[in-house]
Design a protein that fits this description.
The complex is a heterodimer.
Chain A lengths: L1 H38 L4 H24 L9 H4 L7 H20 L8 H16 L5 H23 L2 H13 L5 H4 L2 H19 L12
Helix pairs in contact in A: 1-2, 1-9, 2-4, 4-5, 4-6, 6-7, 7-9
Chain B lengths: L1 H31 L2 H25 L3 H4 L1 E2 L3 E2 H20 L8 H15 L4 H25 L2 H18 L5 H17 L2 H6 L3 H18 L1
Antiparallel strand pairs in B: 1-2
Helix pairs in contact in B: 1-2, 1-8, 2-4, 4-5, 4-6, 6-7, 7-8
The chains are: A mainly alpha, B mainly alpha.
Chain lengths: 216, 218
């Protein structure tokens, strides 16, 4: 009975994710490019958030294709969904963490650290392409994820920045759902239903805990 | 044995200049507190360790093969990577590319990791060639253009030191290394700033001030 309920919730979460996350990405993308037209340059924080959602859409589409559609029988698991090695899905997780770390250093104006996460991730990917070794991926995802979320919360409260706080909460809700072992627990199921709802509120600009916007 | 003694003598000369340079850098850092001097300090500390290692290697040649991690990550390769990193870091510092400060260290980490997995030296050599020849040439050009004696001296040092790694004729590499460290000591002593890139207008002003002082006395 409980197993059935979990399966239903998972299916609902999959459909909710596949509908809402791309919509959020389009909303954010529109905002980013409209703002660029007005001020003649990109707002880097918004651009990074847009890239994060774009990557998330990429991941969710592959996950949906693999888990919910008949294509799952044809697609090769190691190439699409595996998290132990570089796949379409795990590449997305790593890239989201890379962008989140970059956003933390950008918001804090730690100029020499702006690209360090990109260098580390690019190095890891080149090593994988040359040797098929991806031993740094899982430690990077966990350590980087924790560092990014902690610093996003710290930055949000220090700078009273809604974008950082929204992204920190979104990442906290999203992180457990990215790994199948955590997603299958009841808490993981609740999170997988809550994060798209929070995400759409965040993308529409309704999440404004702090009244003043200090960053930019 | 006489060959070993000659190499030992040349290495000791190199060591002495290396220590002098480190002491000058520490003094300059205490005066200026500039980040780049820490990088240079690490660089010369690596050179010093490498030199001590070479001396030890003269008498215990099996040491080189013991200190190897994985396939080919030897002590001298680690020191070489540190040396390349600091060269690249100095270049970024000079060009004010502070967003790229950590790139050399990340690149070295992966090259080192690659060396521990596989005996192939292709990435290590590519990295060495790019940094060992392109960076010194840019530093020399920039140093001359901006009349910066330290940049010019370090460019010359990196070039001579890089050549010493490439040339395989006996004694010549050792002599090039000593020439390189002498040039470097002169650079940190501001020799090039004082004598090669001295401002002509300022020099003339000083001279004319002396002349006017002398004529006023008369």
């Amino acid at each position: 009975m409980l197993g059935q309920a979990v399966d239903i919730i998972e299916l609902m979460a999959n459909y909710l994710g596949i509908i809402i996350i791309p919509i959020m990405t389009i909303i954010l993308g529109r905002k980013v490019f409209l703002e660029r037209k007005q001020i003649n340059k990109f707002n880097m924080i918004r651009l990074i958030i847009f890239c994060i959602f774009l990557t998330l859409s990429w991941m969710i589409i592959w996950e949906f294709l693999y888990e919910t559609t008949p294509l799952g029988d044809v697609l090769y698991a190691d190439l699409v969904i595996s998290i132990e090695t570089f796949s379409f899905y795990s590449f997305g997780i790593g890239f989201i963490i890379t962008l989140a770390i970059s956003m933390v250093s950008y918001a804090n104006k730690w100029e020499s650290l702006y690209f360090i996460s990109f260098f580390i991730y690019a190095g890891m990917f080149i090593v994988f392409l040359l040797t098929e070794i991806a031993i740094f991926l899982i430690p990077y995802v966990f350590a980087g994820g924790v560092i990014a979320v902690v610093f996003l919360f710290a930055t949000a409260f220090r700078l009273k920045d809604n974008s950082s706080l929204g992204l920190a909460i979104f990442a906290t809700l999203l992180f457990p759902t990215l790994f199948s072992f955590a997603e299958e627990t009841p808490v993981g199921q609740v999170f997988s239903l809550v994060y798209p709802i929070f995400g759409i509120l965040f993308a529409l600009g309704y999440f404004k805990l702090f009244k003043e916007k200090a960053v930019e | 044995m006489s060959d070993e003694l000659l190499y030992l003598a040349l290495e000791v000369v190199f060591l002495i200049f290396c220590v002098i340079t480190i002491l000058i850098i520490i003094r300059t850092y205490l005066e200026n507190k500039e980040f780049v001097y820490i990088g240079l300090l690490v660089f010369f500390a690596a050179l010093l360790f490498n030199s001590i290692f070479r001396v030890t290697n003269l008498f215990y040649s099996e040491l080189e093969s013991i200190l190897v991690i994985g396939e080919r990550l030897s002590f001298s390769n680690i020191v070489a990577l540190i040396i390349f990193d600091i060269q690249l870091l100095f270049f970024f510092y000079l060009k004010k590319l502070n967003k790229l400060y950590y790139l050399p260290f990340v690149a070295s980490f992966y090259i080192g990791f690659g060396l521990s997995l596989d005996a192939s030296l292709i990435f290590f050599i590519s990295y060495a060639v790019v940094i060992g020849f392109i960076i010194p040439v840019i530093l020399l050009r920039e140093g001359r253009k901006t009349r910066n004696g330290l940049a010019f001296g370090l460019g010359l040092f990196f070039l001579l030191y890089g050549l010493s790694k490439m040339i395989q004729v006996p004694i010549i590499p050792e002599l090039l290394r000593i020439a390189a460290i002498i040039v470097c000591t002169l650079a940190v002593l501001e020799f090039f700033d004082k004598f090669l890139f001295q401002d002509k207008e300022e020099k003339e002003k000083i001279q004319s001030a002396w002349i006017s002082k002398l004529t006023a006395k008369k």
